[in-house]
Amino acid sequence: MGFAPGPAPADPSRDTTPDANDTDYILEQYPDRLPETTNQCIFFRTLYDWRPLNNTNLIVWAPSKNHPYHIQLDRPCNGLRFAHSIGFTSRDSRLCGFGGDSVLVESSGGMADRCPIGSITKLTDESLKNLLAQEPGRSLQDKRAAEEGGKPN
C-alpha cells in the first residue's frame, strides 16, 4: 500500500505569501518573510476563545466557535505557545492585521512581550483543520476535535 504525496510546497517566487486558507499553507514555511497585511478585523467585545499554535501563530474565535480567525504575528512572541492568558492592544475597539495592533504575552519578570499582529485571516473549516493538524504536541483529544471540526474544547 503506497502513500500519496502531500501538497506541493508553495512557490517561493510568488509575490505574496500564501494565507491560511490556501491548501498548501504550512505554518512558518517562510520564517524570514513578514505576513502580508490584511484588512480583516475582529471586534474586542466579540472575542470568544483563542488557541496558540506556536510562538508566531494563533487562532481566535469571534463571535462564536463557528467563526475562527488565524492571527500571524510579525515576529515570534516568547511564551505564546504556553501562555494561559494573553492581552491585546489597539487604538480602537478592533483587532486588525494593520495599524499596529499587538498581542501581549507575559514574559519572565512579569513584563509583557508586545508582539505586533501582521495579519488576520478568516478561516474556512478546512483551513482550520489544516492549521490544527500542524500544531506541535497535540493530544489525542485535540486530534479528534480537529477531525470533528476544529472547534475548541
Order the strands across the largest sheet as they lie in space. 2-3-4-8-7-5
Radius of gyration: 15 Å
Order of helices and strands: EEEEEEEEHH
Q: Report on the biggest sheet.
A: 6 strands, antiparallel
Mean pLDDT: 76
* Share of residues in helices: 10-25%
Proportion of beta-strand residues: 25-35%
Count of helical segments? 2
Distance between the termini: 35 Å
Q: Can you characterise this structure?
A:
By secondary structure, the protein is an alpha+beta fold. It has a domain at 41-147. It is built from two helices and eight strands. It has helices at residues 125-134, 140-147, and strands spanning 41-43, 49-52, 57-61, 68-73, 87-89, 94-96, 102-106, 112-122. Strands 2-3-4-8-7-5 form a six-stranded antiparallel sheet, with no helix packed on it. α1 (125-134) runs antiparallel to α2. It is globular.
Task: Outline the fold blueprint.
Blueprint: E1 41-43, E2 49-52, E3 57-61, E4 68-73, E5 87-89, E6 94-96, E7 102-106, E8 112-122, H1 125-134, H2 140-147
Antiparallel strand pairs: 1-6, 2-3, 3-4, 4-8, 5-7, 7-8
Helix pairs in contact: 1-2
Summarize this structure as a short list of keywords or feature phrases.
single chain; 153 residues; alpha+beta; two-stranded antiparallel ribbon; 2 helices
Summarize the structure.
The chain contains two helices and eight strands. It has 153 residues and is α+β, with helices and mostly antiparallel strands. Strand 7 and strand 8 form a beta hairpin.
